[in-house]
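Hi Y.,

Following your request, here is the sequence exactly as I used it, all 188 residues.
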Amino acid sequence: MKKTIRYSIFVWVCALVYLASVKMNAQLVPNLGGQRAGISAFQFLKIGSGARAVALGETFTAIANDASALYWNPAGLTQFAENQAIFAHTEYVVDIKHEFAGVAYHLTPADVIGASVISLHMDDMEITDETNPKGTGRYFAFGDVAVGLSYGRTMTDQFSFGLTVKYVEETLDILKMRGVLVDIGTFY
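Below is the corresponding structure, written out as tokens. Let me know if you'd prefer a different format.
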């Protein structure tokens, strides 16, 4: 009896481990003759900001000690003594532009507030479809923007806390998506 129960538990554990490791795909729904896999919103938030942070391989959350902490880790706002500002501009292929601007201001030696803007945008692009591969004569616009307000506080000489609230908006032609995000960070 005990052997049967142990064997049963072993089989269930193996089955659960197998099911947890199997790649599960959502059903792909055809849309206008094509597959629309991998579509999700606000992907521009994954693009790193700040030359120093990106040059360090985007491993900046643990050493965020300049104004780019507004993007990487709001608790990092407490890691520098002076007020700072950052302005970054990156150009990608097909005229896609990424901008990041931020300001951090010390209210007291322990309290810092900040504001930031992230933008990803491009020039208008001509609409094509299956029957008009060279263009329909109509154009669409694409753009993303995130505006954030941050607060960082030194709790002890070895621990800091930070919070950022962001309003994000993504525009694709006539479609708009909006949301509010919260980033919480610590620095030990």
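The helical segments are 2-21, 51-55, 69-72.

Thanks again,
Q.
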